[in-house]
């Protein structure tokens, strides 16, 4: 990978960001970060972002990798790094340089070694609660001094276990204590604090590789340098979600994407889907994953080169289909250019093209959409459908910092919008149409009940929000409290 980057030598911002992969080794990330530094901010469309890192470990190498992935999220990051292992001294001091920096995001970068558990533990619940209380006091102090959104790592797990397999049964084992701590930490996080799941990231990377004791003892790096891309990728997606950059619509191809085969040639009975074959089960699993995304608020749509009647018949009546017509906000099946169809989908749903992730098995179709619509995310789907779920999931395109009732109902809301547009076409004038749908608008202040949704609308709406300014919930609360 290192040699390949050296030969390719990406120089433009677009080339540098295209070369990014969370699984690159550290030397490759280091080369890309050096090239990013050579590009002047006024030569890009990246938006400024101030982010502060307060760490109990050495993060100098990681900081530049983070800057890379924030650039891919659309940010030119100015990063403040606190003094080593001074998170409490820095956060609790209202006159510290941290607050003079005026960050938009403060990342408290901790690991399992920082939980501060006593040597002898008689009550695992109390020990976990005490460790969480220490961090909660830090969050409160920061929120009293700054409107910044806080990111807090949960605890990764150590590699070794003196209790062996019995650790899972022994209530007071270190691993169970850390599990309890992570659970309580998530429960304690107030509005304005997001938990970065370091425990999950370490498991994805592989705990044995994650912990490189040489780096810890020599330079206090909390995890292996080669894991930097994975952590930076996850954190940048989280910051992107905070700033309204997360994707919200998944546009799916049909043939060899939601099922195996070509429906127009093979017919409903001939496509590969369902139990009984490896590929059939893989397509079934991918549909279930997409359906779960829809249930949590991601808009689902179809863009396929197909005969509309044949394709919709298969969606609605194939016995093993998980996704049915009523789960898609919009279905486009024709023989037109897919880039044009995606533009039409965005226009119909009234969303930005930068909100869309397009999944298609065909590399030629993906290349066309990427070339014509660079703002649309187009994952490089593998040839084996067994890897579809992993590929889409690893992209973290639909990251979120909260899930509201409106999010959970978003799919039905957009389907309702589509029906309303169809109804509108039956009326000769707008006034009659508006009277017929009997809309009711309620106005009121941005109180605590509506704060989360207000922040989402400010950060995600573009049609009636022309300033491009984005605010965190804490910043909105501060404006609410300001008489001016």
Question: Quick summary of this structure?
Answer:
Helices cover 47% and strands 10% of the residues. With 484 residues, the protein is of the alpha/beta class.
What are the salient characteristics of this protein?
484 residues, four-stranded parallel β-sheet, 10% strand, 9 strands, alpha/beta, single chain
Describe the fold and architecture:
The protein is an alpha/beta fold. The protein contains 23 helices and nine strands. Helices cover 47% and strands 10% of the residues. α4 links the parallel β1 and β2. α3 crosses α4, α4 packs across α12 and α7 runs parallel beside α8. The protein starts with a helix and ends with a helix. The model has no long low-confidence stretch (mean pLDDT 91).
Topology diagram in text:
Elements: H1 2-8, H2 13-18, H3 26-37, E1 47-55, H4 60-72, E2 75-81, H5 87-92, H6 97-101, E3 105-109, H7 124-145, E4 149-153, H8 174-188, E5 193-196, H9 198-205, H10 207-210, H11 213-219, H12 228-242, E6 249-252, H13 263-266, H14 278-295, E7 299-305, H15 308-317, E8 330-334, H16 338-349, E9 356-359, H17 363-372, H18 388-394, H19 405-408, H20 410-424, H21 430-437, H22 451-460, H23 473-481
Largest sheet: 5 strands, parallel
Number of helices: 23
The counted number of beta strands is 9
List the uncertain runs. Answer: none
Helical content class = 40-55%
Major sheet: arrangement of strands: 2-1-3-4-5
| Termini separation | 55 Å
Shape: globular
Report the sheet-strand fraction. Answer: 5-15%
Radius of gyration: 24 Å
Overall structural class, as computed from helix and strand content, comes to: alpha/beta
The overall average pLDDT, rounded, is 91
């Amino acid at each position: 990978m290192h040699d390949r980057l050296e030969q390719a030598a990406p120089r433009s911002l677009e080339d540098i960001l295209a070369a990014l992969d969370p699984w690159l080794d550290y030397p490759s990330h280091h080369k890309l970060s050096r090239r990013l530094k050579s590009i002047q901010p006024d030569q890009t469309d990246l938006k400024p972002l101030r982010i502060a890192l307060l760490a109990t470990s050495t993060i100098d190498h990681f900081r530049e990798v983070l800057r890379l992935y924030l650039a891919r999220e659309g940010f030119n990051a100015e990063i403040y790094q606190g003094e080593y292992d001074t998170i409490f001294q820095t956060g609790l001091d209202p006159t510290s340089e941290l607050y003079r920096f005026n960050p938009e995001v403060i990342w408290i970068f901790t690991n399992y070694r920082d939980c501060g558990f006593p040597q002898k533990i008689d009550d695992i619940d109390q020990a976990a609660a005490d460790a969480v209380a220490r961090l909660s006091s830090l969050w409160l102090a920061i929120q009293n001094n700054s409107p910044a959104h806080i990111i807090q790592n949960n605890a990764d797990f150590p590699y070794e276990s003196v209790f062996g397999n019995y650790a899972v049964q022994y209530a007071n084992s270190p691993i169970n204590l850390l599990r309890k701590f992570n659970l309580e930490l998530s429960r304690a996080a107030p509005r304005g604090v997001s938990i970065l799941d370091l425990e999950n990231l370490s498991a994805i990377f592989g705990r044995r590789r994650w912990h490189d004791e040489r780096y810890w003892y020599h330079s206090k790096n909390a995890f292996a340098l080669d894991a930097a891309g994975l952590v930076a990728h996850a954190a940048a997606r989280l910051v992107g979600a905070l700033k309204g950059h997360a994707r919200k619509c998944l546009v799916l191809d049909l043939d060899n994407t939601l099922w195996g085969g070509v429906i127009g040639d093979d017919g409903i009975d001939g496509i590969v889907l369902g139990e009984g074959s490896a590929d059939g089960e893989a397509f079934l699993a991918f549909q279930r994953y997409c359906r779960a995304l829809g249930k949590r608020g991601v808009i689902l749509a179809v863009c396929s080169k197909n005969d509309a009647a044949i394709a919709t018949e298969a969606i609605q009546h194939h016995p093993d289909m998980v996704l049915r017509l009523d789960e898609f906000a919009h279905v486009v099946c024709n023989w037109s250019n897919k880039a044009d169809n995606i533009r039409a989908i965005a226009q119909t749903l009234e969303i930005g093209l930068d909100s869309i992730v397009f999944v298609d098995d065909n590399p030629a179709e993906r290349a066309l959409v990427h070339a014509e619509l660079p703002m649309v995310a187009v994952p490089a789907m593998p040839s084996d459908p067994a890897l579809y779920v992993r590929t889409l999931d690893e992209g973290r395109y639909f990251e979120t910092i909260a899930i509201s009732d409106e999010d959970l109902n978003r799919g039905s809301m957009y389907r309702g919008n589509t029906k309303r547009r169809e109804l509108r076409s039956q009326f000769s004038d707008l006034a009659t149409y508006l009277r017929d749908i009997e809309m009711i608008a309620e106005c009121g202040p941005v109180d605590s009940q509506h704060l989360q949704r207000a922040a989402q609308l400010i950060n995600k709406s573009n049609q009636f929000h022309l300033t491009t300014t984005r605010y965190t919930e804490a910043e909105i609360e501060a404006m609410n409290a300001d008489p001016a």
